[in-house]
């Protein structure tokens, strides 16, 4: 059993945002109330039942939105209320019955007075009836959070989380629906909060019994727009407002300890996912026709995206002339004229430089993403294999 929370009971709340979950709501809230004394339910404009009647007799607080504003708005309504009541942490549990309130104690040891950790419940997908869309969505969200923050999180789409409300209420958000849950992780990380994961179980009903407020087209469009916004903001040479002071830089002086600095750079973003992303980004930029600027652009992007700078800067050598530029020019020429350029030489390139540069650019739009995917995939396989071998070797030595 997890040890008790170091956080006083009156400082900890459970929040259940609900929209049209009449079949499961009372059971979920009863489960939460059995574990925590403080439970707040936010009715986000439900139309399938009177939420007050569904929860009659339960000692919980009910807040209402006059109309549906989105899950993100419901979470923020609960967060502001919890802080007003003197609470410090708020555990959010979905009302559709997929989360098990009995897993709340797994969060408790990680919640400390004045804590700055945002704790995310990582769902166990080895259970039955997990839809492909959920598996893909989790991988998709995890990848984009890695791009946006440089951090690896096991389940960015899980709504079972513990928020430090004082910090959550100071952040500003654009998203109000399911895109909020992607945005809040990125902005929390930028603000200096620690993203921590804890394993949880999950229940997925059979497809014919499943009730979800997620609208595939509209909500996926919102999520794609949100990730585009977050990546664009990350690329700007502007700092983020930090709510938690930055820790002193772990890097020693380059001039006094060059070997230590090199060692730390090699370990930067050294997970298989981080190394794969570093290799893919470095290769993508290296293929583009940004003459004499590749190293500068690659270094800037790797700095903004917290990538492994050793990998991003060195992978560009795989795209050095003449092979990769020639491949791009041939591809671009074929797309423009419907035939291959048979007379490709230094003479024809420089004599018709403007045409070749245009074809290089057009071709790079095809070649760059393909080369990036191949390079990133190969790096992931190598890094994952090396990690697996090392773990097996370590386990063997430990026996």
From TrEMBL:
Instruction: State if Transferase is listed as a keyword.
Output: yes
Alphabetically sorted, this entry's keywords are: Membrane, Transferase, Transmembrane, Transmembrane helix
Q: Which GO terms describe its molecular function?
A: transferase activity
Highest taxon above the source species: Bacteria
Residues covered by the Glycosyltransferase 2-like domain: 15-165
Q: Where are the transmembrane segments?
A: 274-301, 360-383
The answer to whether the entry has keyword Transmembrane helix is: yes
Q: What is this protein called?
A: Glycosyl transferase, family 2
